[in-house]
Design a protein that fits this description.
- The complex is a heterodimer of chains A (about 290) and B (about 700).
- Chain A is of the alpha+beta class and about 290 residues long.
- Chain A folds into two domains: about 110 residues, 2-Layer Sandwich (Alpha-Beta Plaits), CATH 3.30.70.580; about 120 residues, no CATH class.
- Chain A is built from seven helices and eleven strands.
- In chain A, strand 10 and strand 11 form a beta hairpin.
- Chain A starts with a strand and ends in a 17-residue tail after the last strand.
- Chain B has about 700 residues and is α/β, with parallel strands linked by helices.
- In chain B, about 50% of the residues are buried.
- Classes of the chains: A alpha+beta (about 290), B alpha/beta (about 700).
- The interface between A and B is medium-sized, with 28 and 27 residues.
């Protein structure tokens, strides 16, 4: 059976933010069953509920913009009122998870994983005040590359994340550090808030400014970065300017995903489901 | 501040799997602490993933929170990474429900399901900021208690526990709460020892500090009460009817992955199959079935409330539940539950059982597990697991023909009288199973899982000297060599090193406590996790404490020897267990007493309770040792098993003929009793629901 495709938007805050992406998937499957929502199952040897989750939220981060698409029995969808559905699901989700919106989605709509191009984050960081952070941010944004060391499947790579950092703003001081907002791309590979922070090194007071950046990108840039990091490991850097920056980059205190964005062909961006609009399920897009 | 959450929160991003420390599960209770309320911290001394599904802990959690005079929360052992941070920050053990510090509770009560968690119990007490040794605790410290199967020999933990509970906890926790509430309300008369003295008088409660071990040289002679008002023998608690205890009513649904992550409904407690290696089967007698209607309600409501799509009908042998087919069919067909799969965690080995499995695993057919436990019929008579080779083959044939491709077989090695041909017969059985599968599928797969046998208290094998680690390794090696070039058979085993520690803790006396403490003090926590287990640590601890491993673990015991648990009772007569041990050595099997007359093991008569079994006839299926196909409705022959030719010389039972002596003797004894009724003794204790006792079968 082909079900009506319903997209849900939900938030994740408080204690429950320490659950993993896989945990959240299990929690949703069970919550949909608890709320007696008839999700369509896949055919075959091992039937699974047809639910597709969007981008993974790193464990420990909170969010106002998590999404999933579920295929639901169309006859049931036709008879359900949107507000009741949203309310029933929130009641069956654990404390800290709230269903914010639900809407029918055209069956041809690309999956969340493919469609979403960037996210806006609220990032609380320690290791600098607002002035220092602003300096680190403007240096990072003015440069043509921003190298971070990342690990994937046990392999360490050095990537230039600069093209994926669309915007960073310093919002101001908070009690334990500084608050930033940032829009970070999710494709081809998502940049995480902690990776952005790892590339932001506040200046040490009373020292000269950072050296000019050798504008290299791609493979050459990665090679250069690898050489640099090897030098750092081996002993005092030849390039004395490097020590003008703090050895410690900014460190993450808290991160919250505020928005996910889909960039349309026309170059405009929109959310997969805006919270302000609550379209009626069933009366929405035909399956 | 009674919540540690704000201190804990910054630590969580630094540890693995932080979701196991947050609580917040569906079904979590709201404890109401306050004056006049006895607060319990129910603690599982291993990780959240292992401990959360524990049904015993969940049952008591609900029962206590339903009482106006009690509040219960839960705690689990933090993993090493968080423990290090907690110790560095000075944070004590905490509850998951409200993140309340452990020292604020009146009772820290541990579930003891496995001996290898003992060092974790010590670690949790220490993390709670409480003195590890009971004698060093002050009046303001929480009481440290324990329940669960391991408490049938609490002696190795006697120095660390204030009290232990034997048997079913449903009623006992209420009685203990009442004693504590009274004591608190009346100004804590007598301090800590005052309340412990009062607890020692509660049935089923053992207070180790009120008992004194007496030694004869190096040998234990007895464990004796120190005071006249303390019972000489502590009897276990038994709830008479499971129907009165439909718990858990709101099973906890974890937010993160745990073992056995599904709805669990206990369909009966107790087992009288009489497998001689099985402690659970011996100590939980008699059989008490839950009414089928209640099972259906608990399954239906449970699925709707939890959102699980899998339910396990739990017991020690679920296919024996009266009317199991109907209950299963009703669950699978209940449209209100959606796509549900049912699992029967302990399948009997016969084709009938496979039929049920086929019916219930319509949704997801993964693999089937059988536990023949031993490779030869001779060996299975010794352990009283009365499955013939044909029973196993017909079950396997039936499974392959119904579409299964993977089979798992469980075996024990290191059993009493086991010879190398017995061990190697395991490989032969597996090969034959694969051969049966070839007729149905191109690549049949049989996984053979072998465990080293550890004798347990209150079983007929409690007198048996456990195999050494070297011997267990040799036996597993035999199998490994034999199966090396066999296609389709995978051999799995755990290194038997840990079986030595388990054996020491399971049958040790009070002096073994020092060894456990030594292991813990030298970093030996999470001993159930093979990556954390180091046999050298146990050997050097035993040496440092002067404990003779050989005497505790590998020595055969004699009938006249005092056992460390002789002052405790699971209801079983020691004579019965000894006779059963002799029968084992004579290779004589014993029928299930649910449908045959009583052997007077003591579990029913001693407590004036009866088996609660809805069906007056044995379940269909297999031969159950009779050599007759019972799945076609055949009757059990009067004669169960041939007697071993040598038996006459050793058997102490009255001989009544050349064959079937055991079964017949028992039958005649009970017929005698039926004709001349005596108080407190009846021939058959089986009560058929809705039928008079003794109704014609």
């Amino acid at each position: 059976m082909t079900g009506s495709r319903i997209r849900f938007r939900f938030s994740k805050h408080g204690k429950v933010r320490f659950t993993s992406h896989r945990d959240v998937a299990r929690i949703w499957e069970r919550s949909l069953r608890r709320a007696a929502v008839p999700v369509v199952y896949s055919a075959g040897f091992s039937p699974r509920p047809r639910i597709a989750f969007g981008l993974a939220l790193p464990t420990g981060y909170s969010s106002d913009a998590e999404y999933l698409d579920a295929e639901i029995d169309p006859a049931w969808v036709a008879g359900i009122d949107n507000e009741r559905l949203v309310g029933a699901l929130t009641a069956s989700l654990p404390t800290g998870m709230t269903t914010l919106a639900a809407a029918g989605i055209a069956s041809g709509e690309p999956s969340l994983q493919h469609a979403v191009t960037s996210c806006t984050w609220r990032i609380d960081a320690a290791g600098a005040d607002a002035t220092e952070a602003a300096e680190a941010v403007s240096r990072a944004m003015d440069g043509s590359e921003l190298l971070v060391q990342r690990e994937r499947k046990g392999r360490i790579t050095i990537d230039d994340i600069r093209p994926a950092v669309h915007a960073v703003e310093v919002q101001g001081n908070i009690t334990d550090g500084v608050r930033l907002t940032a829009e970070l791309a999710t494709q081809p590979r998502a940049v995480r808030p902690n990776e952005l922070l790892a590339s932001l090194r506040p200046p040490l007071r009373g020292r000269a400014d950072r050296r000019a950046n050798p504008a290299r990108t791609g493979e050459a840039g990665a090679r250069a970065a690898r050489e640099r990091s090897e030098q750092e490991r081996e002993g005092p850097p030849r390039d004395a300017e490097a020590v003008h920056l703090s050895a410690q980059p900014l460190s993450l205190l808290r991160a919250c995903r505020l928005h996910q964005w889909i960039t349309t062909d026309a170059g405009e961006r929109r959310e997969p489901l805006a919270v302000s609009v609550l379209p009626v399920v069933g009366a929405g897009v035909a399956p | 501040m009674s919540s540690l959450w704000h201190s804990l929160e910054p630590l969580l991003p630094q540890v693995s799997k932080p979701a196991r420390y947050i609580g917040g599960e569906a079904g979590m209770q709201t404890p109401r602490h306050g004056p006049g309320v006895v607060s319990w911290l129910l603690t599982y001394p291993d990780t959240y993933e292992i401990g959360l599904p524990n049904q015993g802990l969940q049952i008591l959690y609900e029962i206590l929170n339903e009482r106006p005079d009690a509040a219960a929360e839960r705690a689990y052992a933090p993993w090493g990474d968080l423990e290090a941070l907690m110790r560095a920050e000075g944070l004590p053990l905490f509850s998951l429900d409200t993140h309340r510090p452990a020292p604020l509770f009146d009772v820290i009560a541990f579930n003891l399901s496995a001996e290898l968690t003992y060092t974790n119990l010590l670690n949790c007490i220490d993390l709670a900021g409480v003195a590890v040794r009971a004698a060093s605790r002050s009046d303001s410290d929480p009481l440290v208690g324990a329940g669960g199967h391991c408490t049938y020999n609490p002696e190795p933990l006697a120095d660390f526990l204030d009290f232990a509970v034997l048997g079913d906890g449903e009623e006992a926790v209420g009685d203990i709460t009442a004693v504590l509430a009274d004591w608190k309300a009346s100004g804590r008369p007598g301090g800590r020892s005052g309340v412990l003295r009062a607890l020692a008088r509660v049935p089923g409660v053992y207070v180790p500090s009120m008992y004194e071990p007496v030694y004869d040289g190096a040998r234990l002679a007895a464990v004796e009460p120190r005071h006249p008002d303390v019972p000489a023998v502590v009897e276990k608690r038994t709830v008479a009817d499971l129907a009165d205890w439909p718990y858990p009513k709101q099973q906890l649904v974890p937010l993160t992955e745990v073992v056995h992550d599904r709805l669990n409904v206990e369909v009966f407690r107790g087992c009288t199959r009489g497998c001689r290696f099985c402690q659970a089967g011996m100590i939980t007698r008699p059989v008490r079935e839950r009414p089928a209607e209640q099972v259906r309600t608990m399954v239906g409501e449970g699925l709707r409330r939890t959102g699980y799509d899998e339910v396990a009908l739990t017991s020690l042998s679920t296919a024996d539940f009266s009317g199991i087919e109907r209950v299963v069919a009703d669950t699978v067909d209940d449209a209100g539950c959606g796509q549900v799969s049912v699992s029967l965690p302990s399948l009997r080995v016969d084709a009938f059982t496979v039929g049920i499995a086929a019916q219930i695993q319509r949704a997801r057919r993964t693999g089937l597990t059988f536990a023949p436990e031993a490779g030869t019929w001779r060996m299975r008579q010794v352990i009283n697991k009365l499955i013939t080779n044909d029973d196993l083959y017909s079950a396997v044939e039936s499974a392959y023909s119904q579409g299964w491709r993977r089979m798992k077989l469980y075996f024990l090695t290191g059993l009493p009288t086991e010879t190398d041909p017995d061990t190697l017969a395991i490989a032969e059985l597996a090969r034959n199973c694969v051969a049966l599968g070839r007729a149905h599928t191109r690549s049949p797969s049989v996984t053979v899982s072998v465990g080293g046998f550890v004798p347990k208290p209150f079983t007929p094998f409690q007198w048996f000297g456990q195999n050494t680690v070297a011997e267990l390794r040799r036996k597993i090696g035999l199998l490994r060599d034999d199966l090396r070039r066999t296609r389709g058979v995978q051999l799995k085993w755990h290194d038997p090193a840990a079986s030595l520690a388990e054996g020491l803790a399971s049958r040790g006396d009070r002096r073994v406590g020092a060894v456990i403490e030594h292991v813990w003090r030298h970093g030996g926590t999470f001993q159930e996790w093979s990556e954390h287990f180091d046999l050298k640590r146990w050997r050097s601890a035993a040496e440092a404490c002067g404990a003779d491993i050989d005497a505790y673990v590998h020595r055969h015991r004699t009938f006249d020897e005092a056992l460390p648990w002789d002052h405790l009772s699971a209801g079983l007569h020691k004579d019965f267990l000894w006779q059963d041990w002799r029968d084992a050595l004579n290779e004589v099997g014993l029928e299930d007493c649910r449908w045959t007359p009583c052997y007077d093991c003591g579990a029913c008569t001693g407590y004036g309770i009866e088996h609660v079994v809805a069906s007056a006839v044995p379940p269909a299926g297999g031969s159950q040792g009779t050599g007759v196909d019972l799945s076609r409705g055949a009757e059990i022959p009067v004669r169960l098993l041939d007697r071993h030719p040598e038996a006459g010389r050793i058997d102490r039972r009255p001989a009544t003929g050349a064959t079937g002596a055991v079964a017949r003797a028992a039958r005649e004894r009970s017929e005698e009793e039926r004709e001349t009724p005596r108080a407190g003794a009846s021939g058959s204790h089986t009560t058929a629901r809705g039928r008079p006792v003794g109704a014609a079968r």
